[in-house]
Specification:
alpha/beta; Rossmann fold; binds NADP nicotinamide-adenine-dinucleotide phosphate; 3-stranded antiparallel sheet
């Protein structure tokens, strides 16, 4: 039974429309395991007979829809969004799952998307856009590089893409958020914003930038009942670590924290765990400014 099937349904987010930017999946190429239960740490869907790893956005969509939110998934790949909807509809009401295919870096497309959003329910937002699905082709899918191997282009792309996409959408949605009694926003940054390692000159720098952006939004908007939460996941099992080159790189990072992944194995959190965290953040009466989460067995160092 998949982890999504085991999540207890609730009505806690009924009547909310939650935009989730950055929904997709990748073909399963490697299996990682939970350190205590021994079960695989990815969440999967089957597409044309092939097992796919859900990314963070798609898993969050599944969890929030199980809590009765209307989820509106966004990425550039209409085919993928259609497949995710079809698979999620096995667990939740089909009418709770909406999607739009657009390029979040394109100003006109973002404006049009926001203009046409139905306004029958309060709108919340989860931002989970990333480089991984082809915005920029990383060699070996590996953003963890020693300084001398970091291409200039990677410095530019990693720091700009997510920040630009987040800011564009934030500016377009703000007038709507300002009209609502209450708005919740979860901006997914990364533990790499606050947990350094020597291969992090681009990745930690880029995550640090979006993390500070989220913090500024939080401080700037809470007086208008727009409650922003920075979500900082550590390594999550979305396919990003399936390449052996990436695995070697993160073992080196773990070594720097005396975390023995070399002998004990790499430990990654399931993306549905990020969904459960966001469900809590969106439904608790408190405003949670930020939330850090790592897999059991993953170096849990904060501010280091
Ligand atoms: N996985 C981890 O271990 C981890 C840990 C901490 C933080 N994070 C961060 O969390 C976010 C999501 O991670 P993930 O592993 O789920 O990443 P992912 O699989 O690479 O997902 C990124 C999503 O963004 C979409 N996207 C990229 N460029 C876009 C554009 N211009 N317009 C619209 N959609 C676009 C991609 O879909 P299309 O290409 O189909 O458009 C894809 O669905 C990333 O920012 C990542 O850095 C990930």
């Amino acid at each position: 039974m998949s982890r999504l099937e085991r999540i207890v349904k609730s009505e806690r987010l009924k009547g909310k429309r939650i935009i989730i930017t950055g929904c997709g999946y990748k073909p399963l190429k490697h299996i990682f395991y939970d350190i205590t239960t021994g079960e695989p740490s990815h969440d999967s869907i089957e597409v044309e007979g092939q097992e796919m790893k859900l990314n963070i956005g798609s898993a969050v969509a599944g969890v929030l829809a199980l809590n009765s939110a209307t989820v509106h998934m966004v990425s550039r790949s209409e085919g993928k969004l259609k497949n995710i909807k079809k698979c999620l509809a096995e667990f939740v009401d089909d009418h709770l799952i909406e999607y739009s295919a657009l390029d979040l870096l394109d100003e006109d497309q973002v404006k049009r998307f926001v203009e046409h959003l139905p306004r029958d329910k309060p709108i919340y937002w989860v931002q989970s856009v990333g480089l991984g699905a082809g915005s920029y082709k990383l060699k070996d899918d590996n953003p963890y590089l020693p300084i001398e191997k970091i291409p200039l282009e990677l410095i530019e792309k990693e720091s700009q893409i997510v920040l630009r996409a987040t800011h564009l959408m934030m500016q377009e949605l703000l007038p709507t958020f300002r009209e609502q009694d209450e708005t919740r926003i979860a901006l997914i940054t990364s533990m790499s914003a606050i947990r350094g390692y020597s291969y992090g000159a681009t990745h930690c720098a880029a995550k640090g930038a979006i993390d500070r952006y989220a913090n500024a939004c939080m401080l700037g908007l809470y007086k208008e009942n727009i409650f922003v939460t920075t979500i900082r996941p550590g390594g999550v099992d979305t396919g990003m670590y399936d390449n052996p080159v990436v695995q070697e790189a993160v073992k080196d990072a773990a070594d720097e924290y005396q975390c023995d992944w070399r002998n004990k194995g790499i430990r990654l959190a399931p993306p549905t765990a990020v969904g459960e965290a966001i469900n809590y953040v969106f439904t608790t009466p408190a405003h949670i400014p930020s939330l850090n989460l790592v897999a059991k067995g993953q170096f849990p160092n904060e501010g280091s």
